Predict the structure.
Amino acid sequence: MPTNTLTDTICKTAKPGEKPIKLFDGHGLHLFIFPAGAKVWRLAYRIDGLPKQKSLGAYPLVTLAEARMRSAELRKGLLQGVAPVTKKKRPKTTFWEDCEAYWKGREDVSADYKANALRALELHLKPQLGDKATAEIDRAMLLTELNKMDAKGVLCTSGERLSACSADHRAYP
């Protein structure tokens, strides 16, 4: 495969098409041009035979020279068995740890309000969901428990309960 086939002039003057366009530089580095005109550097590579790609930044903010340097660093890491990270992994925490962290950080409500909300969550959600990893709890599981709270007349609305336990929550679609 030829290497370093792109020039800054080619990158600058490349026009979008009806479909995405890839301008290859070599060793998996290419400039991906979206039909809307945005240009992004990407590195294509394989891990365990599966194709992967890593975005290296938008052109022209990331120049051709910078994209080549980033690509070389990532390829060097691949040779040493280090895969580029495409998404940051969230530390595995329990539902209850996340609830406590959320309410501890709230400065916009009174201490009494925080204490009452946390106590309601502790009494009604912690027994069923507290020890589960937050990422493993889906919307249906949470709504089942919220509906049980609703039947008992706890809090005012299911929206308020959902807000109380998931406003800072990233696991619920």
The beta strands are 21-26, 29-33, 39-47, 50-59. The two ends are 42 Å apart (CA to CA). The first strand starts at residue 21 and ends at 26. The chain has seven helices and four strands.
